[in-house]
Design goal:
The protein is an alpha/beta fold. The protein has one domain. Helix content is about 40%, strand content about 10%. Strand 2, helix 1 (about 35) and strand 3 form a beta-alpha-beta unit. Helix 2 (about 50-55) packs antiparallel against helix 3 (about 60-75).
Length: about 130
């Protein structure tokens, strides 16, 4: 099986990225579709608008946000489909999940990575910044 990687959407796209899938709900500011060079956009597995806004407005701390997002993924119809799609892609080539956040550890990405791991998909570590 190929490798699942993580990369900021603002970093240069490379052929070694393989398929590039955006895992953010909102389109990243200042990035053209050409520069993003995406092969997919997994909006359905991102945190809901409600918990995302509550976290950004300070009504949820990071632990509360993470628990809420984990619950969403565990009950999501989209997550199993995403896992199946990812497995099919990884059977063929590397996949890079791209995101906009500057500090990945303070976003939804650690929860997403943990849930992918529980579903049997190993990945490279998240970038630190």
């Amino acid at each position: 099986m190929a490798t699942l990687k993580w990369k900021r959407v603002y970093d240069q796209a490379n052929p070694s990225d393989g398929d590039r899938i955006l895992v953010d709900q909102l389109w990243p500011r200042g990035v053209s579709r050409e520069k993003a060079a995406l092969d997919g956009w997994a909006k359905g597995i991102t945190p809901s608008k409600g918990i995302r806004q509550a976290y950004h407005q300070g009504r949820l701390n990071f632990d509360q946000f993470s628990r809420s997002y984990e619950e969403e993924l565990q009950t999501s119809q989209a997550f199993p489909d995403f896992v199946d799609d990812l497995n099919q892609r990884l059977d063929q080539r590397d996949v890079t999940l791209v995101f906009a956040g500057r500090v990945p550890g303070q976003t939804h990405l650690p929860v997403l990575r943990d849930q992918l791991e529980k579903a049997g998909i190993e990945s490279d570590p998240l970038p630190t910044e």
